[in-house]
Amino acid sequence: xxxxxxxxxxxxxxxxxxxxxxxxxxxxxxxxxxxxxxxxxxxxxxxxxxxxxxxxxxxxxxxxxxxxxxxxxxxxxxxxxxxxxxxxxxxxxxxxxxxxxxxxxxxxxxxxxxxxxxxxxxxxxxxxxxxxxxxxxxxxxxxxxxxxxxxxxxxxxxxxxxxxxxxxxxxxxxxxxxxxxxxxxxxxx
Length: 189
Ligand code: VGL
Ligand code: ZN
What we know:
Elements: E1 12-17, H1 37-50, E2 55-60, E3 100-104, H2 121-127, E4 132-138, H3 140-153, E5 157-166, H4 170-182, E6 186-188
Parallel strand pairs: 1-2, 1-4, 2-3, 4-5, 5-6
Helix pairs in contact: 3-4
The chain binds pyrazine-2-carboxylic acid and zinc ion.
């Protein structure tokens, strides 16, 4: 097994995408084996903290009746409602107090799958001198994919932590992996 500690370098950040109860077992929009990313990400978070690498955690944070919900003509069942238990980070995810929370999906008129979409994240990362992102979380074929593609468009080097992400569907996961690689993202396995 790779020693994670030796992978981090100055200018790196760890981005944990949407590891929230609703995307895990028992949640409103569970990703198969979504919980399995938690212990893996905890090891990465620990290594990041040791290496002084900042940790960012995005969260889906929807208003009632959000446009992405089926009741409003969208593709998804209601999930990650603001201030609900389902929107909380998984209870076993060990985010440091210093973790920077990126809230998205709050717009009434459009969905924001990417942690970069109108959040100011790219600017924040650049100001912090970040050049390379290690990205994991849920779901691989939705918000991880969108976040990775935007990160590449914004000029960041990207490594997807393969064992720290799970797709909504296996086919979606395969397609997402191809798209992320075609966009120049590396896959860390
Ligand atoms: C997500 C579906 C709907 C995600 C968010 O975080 O991947 N998936 N909203
Ligand atoms: Zn959502």
